[in-house]
Amino acid sequence: MLVGETAREFGILVLVFAPLDTLFQSSGPRGAIVGFLVAMALIFIVVGIILEAWKQRM
């Protein structure tokens, strides 16, 4: 259950702070890199939720 919570929290942190980081950097990564980071964060959130639900069913 701890792995699911950790994956979900990691995804939320990346989803929130990756776009904010690019806003405050003048020469930071744009476009595709931010999109990739957001997509990976969403995957971590979904996997975390799935792992938590799977552990609760057992």
Describe the structure.
The protein is mainly α and 58 residues long. The protein has one domain. Helix content is 84%, strand content 0%. It contains two helices and no strands. Helix 1 packs antiparallel against helix 2. The radius of gyration is 14 Å and the shape is elongated. The N and C termini lie close together (11 Å). The model has no long low-confidence stretch (mean pLDDT 81).
What's the short version?
With 58 residues, this protein is mainly alpha-helical. The protein is built from two helices and no strands.
Residues in helices, as a percent range: over 70%
Query: What is the overall silhouette?
Result: elongated
The first-to-last residue Cα distance is 11 Å
- In round numbers, the mean pLDDT is 81
Largest sheet: none
> What ranges have pLDDT less than 50 throughout 5 or more consecutive residues?
none
Q: What are the secondary-structure elements, in order, as H or E?
A: HH
Kindly give the count of domains: 1
Beta-strand percentage range: under 5%
How many H/I helical runs?
2
What is the structural class? mainly alpha
Radius of gyration from the alpha-carbon trace, in angstroms: 14 Å
Oligomerization status of the protein chains? single chain
Task: List how many beta strands DSSP finds.
Answer: 0
